[in-house]
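1st attempt posting a full record on here, be nice pls
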Amino acid sequence: EHLKDLGYDIGYTTVCNQINRKLSSRKEAFIRQLYSPGEVCEFDWGEVKLEIGGSLQTLYMAVFTPAMSNYRYAILFHRQNTESFLQAHVLFFEHVGGVFHTMVYDNMRVAIRRFVGPSEKEPTEALLKLSTYYQFHFRFCNVARGNEKGHVERSVEFVRRKAFSGNDRYPSVEAANVWLEGTCNRLNTRFNRDNQGKRSIDLLEVEKKRLAPVPPPFDCAHIEQCRADKYSVITYGTNRYSVPDHLVGRIVDIKVYPEQLHCYHDNRKVCQHERHYTRQGWYINLDHYLYTLRRKPGALAGSQVLASAPQEVKCVFSQYFKHTPKDFIELLIFLQEHGYDFDKVNEAIDRLLRSSPHDISVDKIKVLCMQKNEVYTPVVNYDDQILQQSRAQLEELSLLLNY
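the predicted structure (as C-alpha cells):
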C-alpha cells in the first residue's frame, strides 16, 4: 500500500516474490568440525509418548552423543528436572567409564539459571556442582542454534524413531529403558558411514583412552523436609508415603532421587520408597504400623494399611487370620524382628497344609520359619571283606613297627 501511495503500479504477489528472492539468494554455510578423542560430548532432552502399564504417559529421554565417535547413550525419565539431569550424567559417566573434557548443552532450564547478556548465560548451581565434582568444562549453544550441537540433535530424533516407532507399549518404565538400551547397543555396533565406515563402539574405545577417570557416583538427590501427620505419612508431590509410626509429628528429611525417596530422621535412614508420579496416591508399608497395630489390632481389617499390602499378605490374612488379627500382627512383628521375608510364611503354611490342614496357628508357623534345613551325612556300609583286609594290613604294620 505504501508503494502504491508513492505512485508505483505494483501488486502484492510481485512484492512477495521479490522479497523471497532476496532472502533466498544467499543461504547460510556451515563449517564442518573435527574433534579429538575424549574432548567433546553433547547432551539433549527428547520427549517420548509411550503407553506404560496401559496408560499413555509423556516421558523424557536424556541423550548423550560424543562428538568424535557418534556413540549413542539414552535413558528415560518421568521428568525433565534437575535430579533427572544429574542422574543421567552419573549413569552415562559410569557407562563409558570416564569423563569427557567438555560437555555441550543448549538453553535448557536445568542447565541455565538466567541470561546475563546477549550471549552470556549463568549456569545453575546443580551444573556448577556437577562439573566441579567430575572436573569437566561446559559450554552453551547460542539461541536457536541447534546446529552447534548437531550430533545430539540428530541422535534424539534418530534414537527415538529407531526405538519406539514400532513398539510404544511397555509394562513399566524399567522395561522401556531395557528396550531403549538394547536399541542403542544395536545402533552402536553398526558400521556407520558418518564414521568413515567404522563402528561407534570401536571409536568409543579410542575415546576412552583420553577420558578423565570417573570418581565415585555423584549424589544427585536434593533435600526436602516434611512433617509426618497423624496417619504417619509424609506428603511429597501430592502423594503420601508412610514412615515408621514413632515419627508421627516429627520432621523427616527426604533425599529426593528421580525414582526413589530416602527418608531420614536425626541423620539416620528410617525407610525408602519408590517415587511415584501419580496424583493423590497412598503408598503404605505395613511394617511401619506394627507398633500401633499391636495396640489396635481391630483397626487392621478395613485399613488403608492392609489395602496397600502385597497381595500374598492380604490372602494369608483373609484365609487364616481374619478373626484373629492380633495373631497376624504378632506374626508380622516376628518376621520383622528376625529379618524373614513373607515367603517363609507361605512355605510354612504349605508344609502345615500337607500335615495338619485344619490347625494353622501362629506358633506352628513360627517354629517352621525358624527351622533350618539340616544336611544329613549318609552312613556308608563298607564291604566286610575290605574291612577284614584293612585290619590284617594294620596288624602286619604293627608287628613290623613293634607296636
